[in-house]
Amino acid sequence: MTSETELIPAPTAVEGPTRCGFAFEADTALWGEPGTEGTQRWLRSTLGAALGLPLPQGEEGARNTVALRLDDTLPAEAYRLEVTATWGVVITGGSPAGVFWGAQTLRQLLGPAAFRRAPVRPDMTYGVPGQAIDDAPRFPWRGLMLDVARHFMPKEGVLRYLDLMAAHKLNVFHFHLTDDQGWRVQIERYPKLTEIGSWRARTKFGHRASPLWDDKPHGGYYTQDDIREIVAYAAERHITVVPEIDVPGHSQAAIAAYPELGNTDVIDTNSLSVWDTWGINPNVLAPTDNTLRFYEGVFEELLELFPGEFIHVGGDECPKDQWKQSATAQARIAELGLADEDELQSWFIGHFDKWLSARGRRLVGWDEILEGGLADGAVVSSWRGYEGGVTAARAGHDVVMCPEQHVYLDWRQAPGEDEPVPIAHVRTLEDVYRFEPVPEQLTEAEAGRVLGAQANVWTEVMEDHARVDYQTFPRLAAFAEVAWSALPAPAERDFADFERRMAAHYPRLDALGVAYRPPTGPLPWQRRPGVLGRPKGGPPPNA
Ligand code: ACM
Fold first, then answer.
1. For 188-213, what is the HEC assignment?
2. 477: closest CA among 4, 5, 2, 6?
3. Distance between CA atoms of 201 and 460, rounded to whole angstroms?
4. Which atom of ligand 1 is nearest to the CA of 314?
5. Ligand 1 close to Cβ of residue 280 (< 6 A)
6. 316 alpha carbon to ligand 1 midpoint, in Å?
7. What's the pTM value of the predicted model, to 2 decimals?
8. What is the pLDDT of residue 526?
9. Which pLDDT belongs to residue 533?
């Protein structure tokens, strides 16, 4: 019998382990109440496949069974997991989601072999020590944002990331689908968004100031059926997908496809192609009726594809230079009686805020959307530090905390020469572990506005899944514990205990095939030559 008690994220309470445990056998059955079918499928396809267990259909109240129960007196995502020698395993969830998170804990208790896709020791018996675990998340929004615009991640990789999120009890996938460098979702009424907007001719290698280029075309997109598959796969794992269409900045790929979306009275937008470098792009959407109608069309298709409550409209980093020069934009400012271009941006975002609200959805945007007033239901992703989140919470808005200084996983993990194309400042595993989503200055009522936290993975310098893994892990494990577990204040957090549990977690990640950054630093194949260039506000790379 193998056992693992080093859970990540840490559960609320564990009684035990006792000396008697439960051993899984070929006739160990699986039974669940109506509503738990998804977790039954998940257990058979993961645990069953990894350990060579058929997990036949069981009966309520029988011995030697994994039983999945619902108890609506528990909080929705809470669960209780009990292991006894005679009965087996009982997972009781406050909802089907709670049952699913309990199943994730069961997999961790079974050890690294349970994270494989087929048995490597078919004659081995797997068991779990007798114990009772009570657990519930701290926050309802435990997010990961993946930028598939700067580098496209084919569908298979996205499904894999949903599995990795589920293994860490994360439940919101923020899907950054559009940017200057690529448009990644099929929109049937506007085929050029993907025909033209999803490919770029070449790609800047390294930082934007680097003199190097990767001279091969890069691109790809998800068809609407791919998106339906991703959303369904996420739903089976109790993950909500929040799509982001970034407006009115970060839009050059769309303008390259449909030049009339840009500020045609300022530049020749026909000359624009999908952007091949990084940074903040001056080519933003024109604030015209045509642009509004176009994006209403985009969002109409998006609402059909993404059933979740939240739709992200970006709103970050929209330079106003073209609007200052554009007679069309200035006429709109005058017509609406606005003070300046910042208010024009608010008007633009406000249009979609109302449009989405009227359709029963809630707008989410980066904290720049605060600059000029917001509708009541709008949610703010606080990325430029905590300040936007504090302002938003005080104004009665819900907030997701994702301050770049703490949870931008593209930032480098260590000083020195070895980090591959290092971005910005050092954010170690311990730094992420000591990230606190709720700023001290909020009152209790305001703190209740913090829906949760999110780690953001921007992929300018991550051209494949191995690079994404390297930047994301192990730090996502620390982030997951921050978002799920009831940790003390940052200075009091027991990082040594987290590291002790990580020693049990790395073999799970190995079994899953995650190319994480080892605690001792990058492996030779993970090292990349540093490239010239100075990142935004940070030291030169390799400094
Ligand atoms: C952002 O990092 N521009 C949201």
1. CCCCHHHHCCCEECCEECCCCCCCCE
2. 6
3. 15
4. 4
5. no
6. 6
7. 0.96
8. 84
9. 40
Q: How far is the CA of 468 from the centre of ligand 1 (A)?
A: 17
| Measured CA angle at 160 (ends 382, 302), to 5 deg | 55
Measured from the CB, is residue 163 less than 6 Å from ligand 1? no
Half-sphere exposure of 414 (CA within 13 A, CB side): 14
Q: What mean pLDDT do residues 101-105 have?
A: 98
Question: What pLDDT does 210 receive?
Answer: 79
Helix intervals (H) in 314-443: 321-325, 327-336, 341-358, 387-394, 404-407, 429-433
- Four-residue CA torsion sign, 374, 380, 384, 387: positive
Q: How far apart are CA 423 and CA 208, in angstroms?
A: 11
pLDDT in tens, 184-201: 999 999 999 999 999 999
pLDDT at 422: 64
Residue 18 has pLDDT above 90, yes or no: no
- Residue range 144-160, pLDDT digits in tens: 999 999 999 999 999 99
Given a contact cutoff of 8 angstroms between Cβ atoms, the answer to whether 88 and 22 are in contact is yes
Q: Which amino acid, one-letter code, is at 104?
A: Q
CA atoms within 13 A on the CB side of 372: 18
Contacts of 478 (CB under 8 A, 6+ apart): 429, 430, 432, 433, 498
Q: How far apart are CA 352 and CA 521, in angstroms?
A: 45
- How far is 432 from 478, CA to CA, in rounded Å? 6
Q: Which residues of 69-104 are buried (b: 16+ CB within 10 A; e: fewer)?
A: bbeeebeebbbbbbbbbebbbbbbbbbbbbbbbbbb
Instruction: Give, using CA atoms, the residue closest to atom 3 of ligand 1.
Output: 316
Residue 23: strand pairing partners: 127
**460 among known catalytic residues:** no
Give me the pLDDT at residue 319, please.
97
Tokens 């009684």 correspond to what residue?
Answer: 15
**535 confidence band (pLDDT: 50, 70, 90):** very low
Quote the ligand 1 centre to 82 CA distance (angstroms).
43
Q: Taking Cα atoms as reference points, which of 5, 8, 2, 1 lies closest to residue 505?
A: 8
Determine which one of 317, 343, 371, 430 is catalytic: 317
Reported as type and span, the H/E element at residue 102 is helix 96-110
Q: Which two tokens stand for residue 326?
A: 């554009």
CA 345 to chain centre: 26
Domains of the chain: 13-135+520-535 (3.30.379.10), 141-484 (3.20.20.80)
The residue to mutate among 174, 317, 406, 423, having the most atoms of ligand 1 within 8 angstroms of its beta carbon, is 317
User: Alpha-carbon distance 498 to 363, whole Å?
Assistant: 36
